[in-house]
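Standup notes
- DV: blocked on the single-chain target, sequence here:
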Amino acid sequence: MLTDDEVRDLFSAYHDRELSPERTEAVRAALDASPPLQREYAAFCRMLDGLSAMAAASEAPLPGASAPKAADAPKPAPPPDLLEGVQRRLQKRSGGRFYADGWSRLAGILPLELIATLVLIALVIAYAAMTMVSPHPAPAPAAPAAAPAR
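- DV (later): unblocked, structure below
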């Protein structure tokens, strides 16, 4: 008999029918024996359905986007982009206020990496400048030797 934690770990494989028949039967028996675990599995399935719906939304063209040309040869479909699906839903729900310009999809991460690198360089320079300053004051210049008295 599987523990509840073991069954939770197998939710994804069980949902995708990737388990052996014996393991599938063990998960099914554990789910049948535990109503709280059944509710968790149902919530897990709803979450996957929601993610699938967002991924499917990424395949629809954005409002105002140009339609593909008829002369374009069909290309193999890439896997659905979850980020793009989320952005499309936010754009639709916000009435176009968010993600209307497509900047978030086009900008990429390079500008953020550049900014992070520049900040890191500035911090290293500041640290180096602070550690090169001696905490002790410079010694006072030696007093000139007194002339012998006559």
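- Follow-up: The chain has seven helices and no strands.
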